[in-house]
Design brief:
Blueprint (H helix, E strand, L loop, with lengths): L2 H36 L5 H8 L3 H29 L1 H20 L4 H29 L2 H8 L1 H21 L9 E2 L2 E2 H7 L2 H13 L4 H6 L3 H8 L8 H17 L15 H15 L2 H14 L5 H26 L1 H23 L3 E3 L2 E3 L4 H30 L6 H29 L1 H22 L8 H21 L1
Antiparallel strand pairs: 1-2, 3-4
Helix pairs in contact: 1-4, 1-5, 1-7, 1-9, 3-4, 3-5, 3-18, 4-5, 4-8, 4-9, 5-17, 5-18, 6-15, 7-8, 7-15, 7-17, 11-12, 13-17, 13-18, 13-19, 14-15, 15-17, 16-17, 16-19, 18-19
Length: 486
């Protein structure tokens, strides 16, 4: 290797470390996202007893945060375009902090739901702003790997929430109502989120602004300073020129810079983003992370808390797999494989729950069906966590043209949270009706996701961010052509 090449290698390594550090800092919002959305798992039964609620009200208490998520996600895109990505992250940190304190000190189910709604606003903001920021600040060659950090942070947050729930409730004889430093244990489950909220706020304060946003508001010198920390020096002029041309095209085509289109009122690329978001939730993944402790207890498992923690560990582990291979294998093959895996494992769960028996009023799964259900549930987490979990966030950060990226990401994330809400609030009702029906329905959605990816989702591996939107639009247009000819 020549001296010049060696020097270049050192520069590349330095820039790679810098870009990775920025992506990790931005993805801390994903940690709070996972923590705040899953911390309810260990508190569901205690809240039900403390506030004397059940059925639909119980489902609403669990799911109300998801309505806040939809509102926060929808608002975050436009707000990020107006005041910048970094300031929106700070707003998210404040919302997390306020919600953690309020929910932990709630005196009734109504104010508990209000505080959870506020926390949902913070989750919604984080769900939009982290993938937007990461996609805009990292080079195409490592964009998939680093964009996957958002999902890794979410899975780590889920694990941290379930582990802290288990520790606070007590491992040997779990009881989330037991007193702990003057408060019930379930209240501390929410209060501990104050710490990562403060960390996220501090990191967001220190992050540089997105160079695309800076150029959009004519702050070129600052944009160049940021690019100098994430791009080789010789590529900065080209990158500035590319972003400026893209911004100029957007301004010259302002009427086209909306989300609207001929396909039922929205552009095809927006529909693709919406469908990816809805399918990610319609397979029922968050039922595992919101209700798993209650579910496994209901069908006779003694160590339901530890089973939930184990599932979250599996989720973290397989996300590392996705990060390692996404820029090698590509997005599309991984999504297809994930859909097949989810369909098979969900069908196995549905079959297992159909074998449940009631003895002395207690529901249980006879062997080997109990073990089959448990293994299938964790293989479902593997299938999701290695594919649809991280890759939907990668694609949402990639597929939209720059002129609508933040707004479209906000709409897609809002759709994701609405779908999450519907699945979450309906699960107690559906499970009371029939667990086999419920998991069979999730399996059908997994099969539909397979067909959707096969016909509509293109491969975006290695494509420059400014070029991805055209690629997606072209595939959607081509896929729709036969129906128009008919």
């Amino acid at each position: 290797m020549s001296r010049t090449s060696a020097a270049t290698g050192k520069i590349d390594a330095r820039l790679r470390r810098r870009v990775t550090a920025l992506a990790v800092a931005a993805a801390v919002g994903g940690f709070l996202f996972g923590f705040d959305s899953s911390v309810i798992n260990g508190a569901v039964d205690a809240i039900e007893q403390q506030f004397e609620i059940e059925g639909l009200i119980q489902g609403l208490a669990v799911a109300i945060a998801l309505i806040g998520c939809a509102v926060g996600a929808y608002a975050a895109g436009g707000l990020a375009d107006r005041i910048g990505r970094r300031k929106v992250m700070l707003i998210g940190a404040v919302l997390f902090f306020v919600s953690s304190v309020g929910a932990g000190l709630a005196f009734g189910v109504i104010d508990f739901m209000v505080w959870r709604f506020i926390g949902g606003l913070g989750i919604g903001v984080a769900s939009v702003i982290a993938p937007t920021y990461i996609a805009e600040i990292v080079p195409a060659a490592v964009r998939g790997r680093l964009a996957s950090l958002q999902q890794l942070a979410i899975t780590v947050g889920i694990f941290a929430a379930l582990l802290s729930d288990a520790l606070l409730a007590g491992i040997g004889d779990p009881d989330a109502l037991r007193p702990l430093l003057g408060l019930e244990a379930w209240r501390w489950m929410f209060l501990v989120a104050v710490v990562p909220s403060v960390v996220y706020g501090f990191l967001a304060w220190r992050l540089p602004e997105s160079p695309r946003y800076l150029l959009a508001v004519d702050r070129e010198r600052e944009a160049r300073d940021v690019l100098a920390t994430v791009q080789p020096q010789g590529e900065i002029d080209d990158e500035v020129g590319r972003i400026r041309r893209n911004i100029q095209e957007d301004r010259e085509n302002a009427k086209k810079a909306s989300l609207r289109g001929a396909a039922l009122g929205l552009a095809p690329v927006v529909w693709i983003g919406l469908a990816l978001s809805v399918f990610q939730q319609a397979v029922g993944i968050n039922v595992i992370f919101y209700y798993s402790t209650t579910l496994w207890s209901a069908v006779g498992f003694q160590d339901a808390f530890l089973i939930s923690v184990f599932s979250s560990v599996v989720n973290v582990a397989v996300t590392f797999v996705a990060i390692a291979i996404v820029d090698k294998v590509g997005r599309r093959p991984m999504l297809l494989a994930g859909s097949i895996g989810m369909a098979v494992t969900l069908a196995a769960m549905a079959l297992s729950f159909s074998q449940a028996v009631t003895t002395d009023g207690q529901l249980s799964l006879p062997q080997p069906w109990g073990m089959i259900a448990l293994v299938a549930a964790n293989l479902f987490v593997v299938s999701f966590g290695a594919t649809w979990g991280p890759l939907v966030w990668v694609l949402l950060g990639e597929i939209f043209p720059n002129r609508i990226r933040a707004k479209a990401l906000g709409v897609a994330a809002a759709a994701q949270w609405i779908a999450n809400f519907l699945v979450t609030v309906s699960f107690p009702v559906f499970s009371d009706f029939s667990l086999p029906f419920t998991y069979g329905l999730y399996a059908v959605f997994a099969l539909l996701s397979l067909l959707f990816v096969f016909f509509f989702v293109p491969e975006t591996k290695g494509v420059e961010l400014e070029d991805v939107g055209g690629l997606v639009f072209g595939r959607a247009k081509k896929a729709a052509a036969p129906s128009r000819r008919a």
